[in-house]
Every structure is written in structure tokens, then in C-alpha cells.
Amino acid sequence: MDTMKILSRWAGMAVGAMIFAHSPAGIAATVTVFVGNTNLSGLAADVFVPPSTNINVNDKVVWVWEGLNHSSTSGTNGVPSGLWDSTITSRPHAFTNTFTAPGNFSYYCQVHVSFGMTGLISVAAVDLPPTVSITNPVNNATFSAPASFTVAATASDPDGTVTNVQFFQGATSLGDFATSPYSMPVNNLAAADYTFSAVATDNGGLTATNAVTVHVVTPVPIILSAPQFLSPTDFRFNYTANSGLSYIIQRASDLGSGLWTTLSTNLATGSPMLFDDAAVSGSPAFYRVGLLPNP
Predict the structure, then answer these.
(1) Greatest pairwise CA separation for the chain in angstroms
(2) CATH assignment of 4-20+219-291?
(3) How far apart are CA 99 and CA 106, in angstroms?
């Protein structure tokens, strides 16, 4: 139940009263292919070793020349594709190419393609994990007990689909949702600190987690104190509050009218809070402070 406190101002005197109101993602690898590999007899063979190489996106291939008069040229059957080309007639020599897209990339030696000196680089796409973000409540939000609100999240996957989002309160599962919007109500939380998390899973089985901390507090009684005039048109007072909770300050010229003018709504940063009304008149006035409902 919301609690309101009321303060009257009359001729400089104030009193208080109460009203109830593959390579891991992001890690690139480097593999080596020997060009014109030297065999056990010490003779250079017109081959790439290994002839076929499997890598992931953003990995590098380094061709190292062991024989002379060879090239590493992208293309098929002697027809270049223009992706890379390195020809060398001496050694030592090495050439590096970074593969930034998935696919199968054939290549050959321009000098010895007719002898079957060809190779293949197979580049697999790296499966990226999904992303998930709790959009409500915000981290370190404060609520008054008993607290009820909805935990909501957004999730996406850069290279696939999100298959489900699961919510947790601490280690306890609150629910699992296969489609957006992803949200879960929680009700009647007692005063304590709570951790809520959302775990998103994508179609590749990869997961991502986002967590927030929520503070639920018992509201302190609102007590108005220290009323004073700073000038005939400037009146101030203090009121007790909970940090992180929102309060409303209102003024009325007649308690019986039920007409209250809202002067301020604010988020308490400590206790007591100071309120200053710099636009008062000489007529009687009454003030009340109330705790706003949880958002």
C-alpha cells in the first residue's frame, strides 16, 4: 500500500500529518603447404603437400617453396581465378593468403599443372554464437517489496537462428521460450537481492548469457522534517526515502478540496531527501510526499 505524508505551511509554522494514500570464433589459425616438396631421396617432387587443406574462415595458408620454378595460383585446369598468385624461381620463399570467406578454392602450379600439380583449400564457415540482452529490468534496478515485474530480453544470431531463450532466477529456471517476444513475469518478491539471467541458444547449439541484479527493499516510513522558510517565497523540508525508489511531491491550498498539484517526481539518491519549493505564496499550503508504484 502506498503511504503519503502531508505537511502544512501556515505563517511560517509547519506540522506533519499522515495520509494513507573449427578454430574457435575469433581465433585464426595458420597452416603450411609445401610447394615442390622434397622426397626421401632428396629430389623435388612436383606436388603440393598436403594437396588438400581444411581451414576455417579467417585462417591463413602459408605456401613454403622447397623446389624451384613453381607457383601457387588460384584457379582450375590452368585457368586463373585471380584470387592469388605467387611465382618464384628461387628459394627460400613463402607466400601467405588469408581466407575471409567460406568455400572451396582450387589452385595449381602454372609450370606443372599439366603434371597434375594442383591443390585445394576448403574453408568452413565459423559458427558464431548468438547474442542476448535483458531489456527489463535494468541492471541494479530497485523495487519496493512486494515486487512484481516482467523480465524481458531480446536475442539474435549473426549466422543462424535463435532456437530458444531460457530465463533463470539464480539457478532456478523460470521458463523457456522458442519465439520472440521473450518475457517472463515474476511476482511478489520479498525484500532481498536477486539475479536474473537469460540464456539464448542458436541452431548450432551455441549459447550466450546476460544477467542483471535487482534490489527489492522494504519501503521506509515517509517522515517529513526540518521545515523552514528561506525567504517569504522559498519553503523547504526533508523527507525520508529509500535510495532507488521514486517519490512524488504535491501541494494543495485546501485539504478538503482534494486538488493536489504535482511539484516534483524524483528518484531518491539517499535519505533524507531535501525538497525546496521556491514558488510559494503567502496563502496557506499543504504538502504531501508519496512513494510511486514500482515501474
Answers:
(1) 113
(2) 2.60.40
(3) 13
Residue 29 grid cell = 589459425
C-alpha distance from residue 70 to each of 23, 51, 110, 114 (Å)? 30, 14, 7, 13
Q: Cα-Cα-Cα-Cα dihedral of 7, 10, 13, 19, to 10°?
A: -20
> What Cα–Cα distance (Å) separates residue 109 from each residue in 38, 173, 247?
16, 59, 78
Q: Which residues of 92-115 are buried (b: 16+ CB within 10 A; e: fewer)?
A: ebebebebeeeeebebbbbbbbee
pTM > 0.90 = no
Give the model confidence (pLDDT) of 42-87 as tens digits. 556 899 999 999 999 999 999 999 888 899 999 999 999 999 999 8
Q: Which amino acid is at 41?
A: S
The CATH number fitting domain 131-217, selected from 3.30.420.40, 1.10.10.410, 2.60.40.10, 3.40.30.10: 2.60.40.10
DSSP 219: P
Task: Give the other-Cβ count within 10 Å of 129's Cβ.
Answer: 18
